[in-house]
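Incident review: delayed structure delivery

Summary: a single-chain prediction request sat in the queue longer than the usual turnaround. Root cause was a stuck worker, restarted by the on-call engineer. No data loss occurred. The affected request and its eventual output are reproduced below so the record is complete for anyone auditing the incident later.

Affected input:
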Amino acid sequence: MKFCSALFLLTVSAFLFSCQPKTGGWIQLFDGATLNGWKAAENPASFSVEGGAIKCNGARAHLYYEGGKSASFKNFELKAEVKTSEKSNSGIFIHTAFQETGWPEKGYEIQVNNSFRGSGKNPELRKTGSIYNIRNVYYPVVPDSVWFEMGIVVEGNHVQVFINDVKVTDYTEPENPWRPKGKEAQVLSSGTIALQSHDPGSTVYFRNIRIKELPAGGKTPLKTDPEWDTLVTKLMFAGFPLIDYHVHLKGGLTLGQAVENSQRLGINYGVAPNCGLHFPVTNDSSLYAYLDSIKNRPVLKGMQAEGREWVTLFSPGAVASFDYVFTDAMTFTDSKGRRNRIWIPDEVWVDDKQQFMDQLVGKIEAIFSQEPVDIYVNPTVLPAALTSEYDQLWTLERKQRVIKVLAENHIALEINARYQLPKADMIKMAKEAGIKFTFGTNNTGKDLGELEYCLRMIEECGLTTGDMFEIKPAGQKPVNIKGLPSKITG
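Output delivered after worker restart:
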């Protein structure tokens, strides 16, 4: 009898496990019709099933997976189809545990946010695919109102996040990673899956939620730099947008290499072509061809507007296709009709130092009062022949004039890692004037560095999240407001 009872129990157990929907090792966590196997905390009414999907809409709440063979996963691949409504915010928690109230304290949240920007006091810049507060991404990968697939792979100390099979986040957790007080449990371990309802104004759908467990110990732990990880994670927890807006694909650097470097370091990149007379992008057709070449890639799309003729070469619609536009004052025509390119010694004319500086500052004022751009890059750079006299030539009055025109026209000021400009005194003056800042490298080759000068200026100048530039929404970009002048006067 004991043998028969044991056989019966074994048969029933095998039958129940075989009834779990699975394909090729995949286990379905949601049956498409009910919330069976899931448990809601705090506000259960925030979750319902609609059209074969879990609908997350209502007061803050979390829905935890508790059913099936196991509700604790360590190494796995998780996939889910997701759709967001406009200005919605949600997330998928991994390695977490059920809580009756509050935000899950254990594990990581993978952010779902395509267009929600938060409020003035509490901006939310972290976009879909972020490992929330650990490795934030700031570029929108997919639009609202369309289904997309999110994939999450966890193996040992390594987490990767994919959107429609494009890797957007790649994080290696070091041994004993830094976490702020009260957040010590936000690390990899093991645990269940949870979905988030953020607030009544947010509606997000999840369907076809499935998981495949991966072999334990199947991957050797990856090595990472704990000091760098601590620095970056501290900025991420502060919501500080660690973005290099000024990356060029030149000197042999490919887009794939830039993306790999970005994800390895945790620095978001904005990749920009040079657009203007005698540059690679010279008209709308070449501009759209470039945008097609980087479509759906995990980088911000920047435009470097070159020379003063650029405003006559492109249409407003084409310019507005970029996330942001930046320019500098390194190309201009002087009072004698000579086209200066001040980074090339043979193409710059300094007849009189003071006269040259007055003319340069006048050009800066004309450019940034008239051109529809977001950022002044390569700021205050001088020709090689004058760099040794930088502090004498960039007088307080000249710096004040530049700051005034930037502030009046809501132009951000780049802190440039390559030139290590502007200097701290001018950054502090600009901060006092309410100017926003960006970081930029302006690389000439494959080496993008680690924004060393920019990171130093955060500390020295007391920069905070609120001091940093935020990309304008569609329809509110400078070109939408100013249009394109037929020429630049002054």
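Verification: The longest strand covers residues 204-213.
Action items: add queue-age alerting; document worker restart procedure.
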